Amino acid sequence: MPERFRSRRVLICDNWEELGCKLCNVYPSVKYLPSADLPCGTDMASVHATAVADIHGGPIRPLCGRERVATKPMIPSVTSVELRAAPIEPSWIRVGTPLARNATLSRSADGLASTLVWDCTAGEFEWIYEIDETIYFLEGSATISDGHNPPKTFGPGDVLFLPHGSVCHWHVETYVKKVAFCRRTLPKPAGLAIRVFDRLVRMVKGSSGGFQVGPAKAA
Q1: Which of 80, 110, 176, 190 has CB 3.0 to 4.6 Å from 186, enough for a Cys bridge?
Q2: What is the pTM of this model?
Q3: pLDDT per residue as tens digits for the range 111-130
């Protein structure tokens, strides 16, 4: 084997273009690949990826072009979990004695977003929304009004978005069960700063990214 392909240390930070990866710019502390036999024809980008995965405790994935970043695992859930009592605020109850329960399925690292399963027995109550909540109805039904639109009955398969500041009247005839995707809202200045930052990142990467809020535009 030619001497230049025998075990040696390869300086990543001087060779990131040759290695086909910008990871060294993201993790400048990563200086060298571990010593290894590198026969002629070795895919240096793959060797680089493997070394970084070992160092940072996880695989890496391509984003755009040659750029790669560490990935995180997905978190699967089921809705048939054990629910615990989650009493409705007594001053919100209007009719009957509705009994509510819930269970948290997941929560974001920053604590601003979470996914819950929630159910409730018969009764009528108000609900004041201090977060954004998207509901996917699983079982039963509930008739909901918000003072802006006529009351509407929601059942299995229906989806409802309730923004921060909504006040809704719920009428549960017998039983309702839902998945709730909850997001705590940020003050407007903070939200604006995040949107500006995201837009700059997308411009630099040449990607539109993100998702559309509201009805899709006609083609």
Answers
A1: 190
A2: 0.60
A3: 899 999 999 999 999 999 99
User: How far apart, in whole angstroms, are the C-alpha atoms of residue 75 and residue 73?
Assistant: 7
Residues 6+ apart with CB under 8 A from 142: 120, 153, 154, 170, 171, 172, 176
Cα-Cα-Cα-Cα dihedral sign, residues 146, 148, 153, 158: negative
Domains along the chain?
3-70 (no CATH), 84-183 (2.60.120.10)
Residue 106: how many CB atoms within 10 A of its CB? 12
- What's the pLDDT tens digit per position in 65-85? 444 557 888 989 999 999 999
Beta bridge partners of 137: 178
Contacts of 96 (CB under 8 A, 6+ apart): 122, 123, 124
Query: Of 168, 128, 131, nearest to 148 (Cα)?
Result: 168
**Amino acid in the structure at residue 56:** H
27 has a pLDDT exceeding 50: no
Distance CA 126, CA 91 (A): 9
Q: What is the pLDDT of residue 65?
A: 45
pLDDT at 39 over 80: no
